[in-house]
């Protein structure tokens, strides 16, 4: 009997009934993947069954519109038979509603919009193949954990930490065209450098998740990530929490305590709600940031630390600086790189994916096997304004899972505020969308042109500053300007 052929490249199955599109996808992927192509769902199914005996396909990339069935329906069937295969769908804007309604049942990991960009497509497929590999490794580690000796258990914990660090940036859930995409691009660019970062945004938008992504995408990923909510602790306690103290430093200090700065040595310290601290405490924090050392309370010796500080606030700190409530020198020390996280109401395209991710987490936390959302439930979630942002969405889905009796989350389980309309009604008209015409793709192009024009006007034609604001490279900005007919002066 012939020995099996060892596959050197991960395999991907492309299902697309348009042969030109199929060939373009093959050419883009063939250097990094072994590419199998199918012109129909039936042909794709035959390839999967053939490949099953030889460890097979890791990723399926499927077009939404095909004769006889949709991409979503095909991926539902793939999930039932081969749940470990990572499923990606390719579609146009007009297919978004069909995909959203089936995203949970099909277990779609990502969807890409046409026309796709080769670099984005290849990067997405590479991440999908890596996700498949890590899922297999995680399953093996889980099995090992049940029987491992303590020494092996420590090695397994280390590998699981590596798994978390690998997907630090991927933990920021977003759809193509999301306002979070420029944030992710900025995180990827600044993470390798030990610069202080100020993350701003409304409460509940996920500022801590952005901070974690910066940490886990950096060279400090194998070191501690320590958090402190500065707004929840009085100044006197905050100082002892951050800097530590010696025994006898104050009443009740019966033992030495190592502060959070020292615990985070080599890693990252995340200071949430930094805007709530007093000017007196801000002076002490500024000294640590400038000199890289501090004195624990009650000690006469300084302790040196190597810590990257990421701060976050939902306040307008620039206004606080003008009124004297926040020190200007500390603000500029903390805000070397500002990162703004948009509210959930500005990210409607992300809501189905976020809801799906939070549903998985809620089911795991509560131990309830809920399959997904009823279509009407997902529609109500999309219609709500989410003043509490992602945190409010997370709490709502926890509630739904806790109350659910069946496999689907029905709309009658929703909180009254969601059933009876948005808590913060969305405006019926907005100056940015007034006058847009045509189909969704055409309106998105018109809106992009307005955003580009406004950014260039704000920065008086300076492309570098406009590109930085929009999370683009200078070359990328010039390409977009050219596409929309803006000519060089």
From TrEMBL:
SMART domains, A to Z: AAA, REC
Species: Azonexus fungiphilus
InterPro entries tied to this protein: AAA+_ATPase, AAA_lid_NorR, CheY-like_superfamily, Homeodomain-like_sf, HTH_Fis, P-loop_NTPase, Sig_transdc_resp-reg_receiver, Sigma_54_int
Residue positions, PTM 4-aspartylphosphate: 63
Highest rank taxon of the organism: Bacteria
Protein's recorded name: Two-component system response regulator HupR/HoxA
Pfam families for the chain: AAA_lid_14, HTH_8, Response_reg, Sigma54_activat
GO BP terms: phosphorelay signal transduction system; regulation of DNA-templated transcription
């Amino acid at each position: 009997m012939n020995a099996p052929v060892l596959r050197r490249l991960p395999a991907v199955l492309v299902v697309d009934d348009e042969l030109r599109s199929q060939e373009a996808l093959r050419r883009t992927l063939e250097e990094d993947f072994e590419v199998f192509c199918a012109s129909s769902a039936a042909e794709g199914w035959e390839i999967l069954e053939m490949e099953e005996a030889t460890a097979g396909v890791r990723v399926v990339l499927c077009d939404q519109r095909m004769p006889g069935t949709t991409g979503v329906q095909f991926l539902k069937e793939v999930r039932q038979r081969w749940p470990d295969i990572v499923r990606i769908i390719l579609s146009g804007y007009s297919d978004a509603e069909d995909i959203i309604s089936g995203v949970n049942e099909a277990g779609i990991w990502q969807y890409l919009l046409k026309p796709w960009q080769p670099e984005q497509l290849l990067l997405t497929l590479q991440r999908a193949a890596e996700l498949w590999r890590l899922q297999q490794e995680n399953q093996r580690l889980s099995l090992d954990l049940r029987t491992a000796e303590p020494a092996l258990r420590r090695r397994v914990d280390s590998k699981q930490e590596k798994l978390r660090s690998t997907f630090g940036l991927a933990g920021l859930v977003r759809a193509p065209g999301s306002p979070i995409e420029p944030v992710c691009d900025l995180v990827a660019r600044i993470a390798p450098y030990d610069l202080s970062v100020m993350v701003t945004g409304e409460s509940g938008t996920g500022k801590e998740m952005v901070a974690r992504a910066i940490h886990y995408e950096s060279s400090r990923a194998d070191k501690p990530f320590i958090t402190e909510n500065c707004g929840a602790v009085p100044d006197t306690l905050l100082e002892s929490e951050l800097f530590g103290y010696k025994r006898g430093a104050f009443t009740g200090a019966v033992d030495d305590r190592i502060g959070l700065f020292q615990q985070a040595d080599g890693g990252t310290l995340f200071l949430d709600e930094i805007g709530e601290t007093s000017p007196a405490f801000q002076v002490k924090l500024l000294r640590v940031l400038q000199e890289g050392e501090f004195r624990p309370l009650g000690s006469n010796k300084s302790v040196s630390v190597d810590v990257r500080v990421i701060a976050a606030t939902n306040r307008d700190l620039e206004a606080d600086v003008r009124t004297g409530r926040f020190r200007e020198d500390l603000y500029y020390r903390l805000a070397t790189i500002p990162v703004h996280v948009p509210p959930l109401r500005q990210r409607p395209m992300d809501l189905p994916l976020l809801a799906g991710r939070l549903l998985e987490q809620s089911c795991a936390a509560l131990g309830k096997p809920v399959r997904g959302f009823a279509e009407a439930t997902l529609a109500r979630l999309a219609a709500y304004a989410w003043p509490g942002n992602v945190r409010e969405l997370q709490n709502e889905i926890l509630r739904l899972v806790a109350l659910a009796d069946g496999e689907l989350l029905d709309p009658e389980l929703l909180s009254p505020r969601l059933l009876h309309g948005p808590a913060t009604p969305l405006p019926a008209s907005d100056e940015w969308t007034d006058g847009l015409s045509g189909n969704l793709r055409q309106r998105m192009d018109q809106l992009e042109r307005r955003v580009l024009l406004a950014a260039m006007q704000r920065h008086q034609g300076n492309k570098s500053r406009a590109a930085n604001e929009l999370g683009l490279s200078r070359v990328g900005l010039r390409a977009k300007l050219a596409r929309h007919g803006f000519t060089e002066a």
